[in-house]
Amino acid sequence: MIRRVLFPALVFSLIWFSIAPAAGESLKNELDEIRQSVLAISAQIDDASAERSVLAQELVGAQERLDTVEIAVAAATSRLDRSTRVHSERSSALEAVRVELARQLVGLSAIRADRDEALDDAKASLLSAYTGGEVSQPEIAFSATAVADVAVGVAYLDVLADFRSGAADRYAAIVAVQEVAEAKVKTVEGAILGEIEALEAAAEVLRSDAADLEDKRAKLVADYEAQVILLSDIRERIAEFEGELTGLEREEAAIRAKIRAAAQPDGRKPGQLLRPVPGAIESGFGQRVHPIYGTVKMHNGIDFHGSMGDRIIAAGGGTVILAGSKAGYGLTVMIDHGGGMVTLYAHQSRLGVSVGDKVAVGSTIGYVGSTGLSTGPHLHFEVRISGVPVDPRSYI
Predict the structure, then answer these.
(1) Can you give the pLDDT at residue 265?
(2) 222, 1 in Cβ contact below 8 A?
(3) Residues 108, 113, 116, 117: is their CA dihedral positive or negative?
(4) Higher pLDDT, 17 or 108
(5) Cα–Cα nearest to 203, from 68, 76, 91
(6) Can you tell me the distance from the alpha carbon of 107 to that of 101, in angstroms, rounded to the nearest whole number?
(7) Residue 151 lies in a domain
(8) 243 and 285 belong to one structural domain
(9) CA–CA separation, 346 vs 333, rounded Å?
(10) Which 3 state secondary structure label does DSSP give 276?
(11) Three-state SS letters, 1-50
(12) Residue 9: what pLDDT?
């Protein structure tokens, strides 16, 4: 019967130890692959973040350049509007001058009619003087074409050195008035036309500058919008990378949990401890009346019933960090299980390990006794997380 019980157990052990390493190796390989993926994605996030930082700085510069051009466009537009307004005002002034010029030309036409009439009178007077013998130059004679030009007419009159008449004097005066009126009109009109031409040239330059600035502004706006799109794309990429990273971290945590579970073939859950002795719990964790002092004190562990010399096992695998007498606890063993967890086994009659020993879960570390402040054989058992005592019943 004993052989039939041991044989299946032996077979199970052999199967477990043949399968467990393979499963553990597979999990470790999978974990390594995930770690590599995490490193790769983390590098991509770093690269994308650096690219985002550079692009954000370039975007600030593009915005500043765009603002500068916007100000220049506004200033050029203002100057063009002002020039257009002045041009319109001067054009209106020129139109008024032209109206006045038309009025003066009407008057000038009358003056010219008077001039022609005076010229005819002068010719008649001169011919009369010639035929009457008053003039000694018979070769001088007027014709319709000879006296058509004012200068010629005056020249003829000047020839008559000894001859003067009221008609000739009136003709000369009218010619002088005509010349003054024409010169005045031409001077005013020329000045205003020159000013308008200058304004038009300046306006053309301003229009050209404004068009160039508007083109530059349009290009800067296009560049700015393109950079905004790029920045948005980079942010989306980073978000995707971070999502992938979160998923990989979850996978890594799940695999680590599997590895921890695989490392505990005795069926315990990760973090779960075995009962160090089989006896019932006689005293729980928390405030209680101390059995020796008779005062209410904190009980930092639980007390298991036991008989003198009963075997005490390690509740979990780890390293022995104390194996000796501890004030109040008597002969005590403390085991560091890693991750901040330490277990304590007190009041032993005899120790089974030494400081520095590596112990496996379930291995013998000592024997039940009543050393230290104890009223009889039992095991005082504690669980400490980062040095703080917690209720051991949460772990067993």
Answers:
(1) 52
(2) no
(3) negative
(4) 108
(5) 76
(6) 10
(7) yes
(8) no
(9) 7
(10) coil
(11) CHHHHHHHHHHHHHHHHHHHHHHHHHHHHHHHHHHHHHHHHHHHHHHHHH
(12) 40
Between these two residues, 292 and 163, which has the higher pLDDT value?
A: 292
The tokens for 186 are 């031409």
CATH number of the domain bearing residue 176: 1.10.287.2610
The pTM of the full predicted model, rounded to 2 decimals, is 0.37
* Number of C-beta neighbours around residue 214 at 10 A: 14
Q: Is the dihedral of CA 193, 197, 202, 207 positive or negative?
A: positive
Residues 54 and 230: their CA atoms lie apart, in Å, by 11
* DSSP character string of 104-158: HHHHHHHHHHHHHHHHHHHHHHHHHHHHTT--S-TT----TTTTSSHHHHHHHHH
As a whole number of angstroms, the distance between CA 277 and CA 314 comes to 9
How far apart are the C-alpha atoms of 352 and 366, rounded to whole Å? 4
Residue 259 and residue 285 in one domain = no
E-strand stretches of the chain: 281-283, 286-289, 296-299, 302-305, 311-313, 318-326, 330-338, 341-351, 358-359, 364-368, 378-385, 388-390
Domain that holds residue 386: 281-394
Using the predicted structure, report yes or no on whether residue 135 has a pLDDT greater than 70. no
Q: Which two tokens stand for residue 220?
A: 């800067």
Render pLDDT for 264-313 as a digit per residue (tens, 0 to 9): 555 555 568 999 999 999 999 998 887 777 788 889 999 999 999 999 99
Report whether pLDDT(165) > 80: no
Q: Which residue has the tokens 């000879």?
A: 146
In this structure, is residue 270 part of a structural domain? Answer: no
Give yes or no: residues 247 and 288 share one domain: no
Contact between 342 and 284 under an 8 Å Cβ cutoff? The reply is no
Parallel, antiparallel or unpaired: strands 358-359 and 364-368: unpaired
The residues near 106 (Cβ < 8 Å, ≥ 6 apart) are: none
pLDDT by residue (tens digit) across 337-394? 988 899 999 999 999 999 999 999 999 999 999 999 888 999 999 999 989 999 999 8
Residue at 268 is within a domain: no
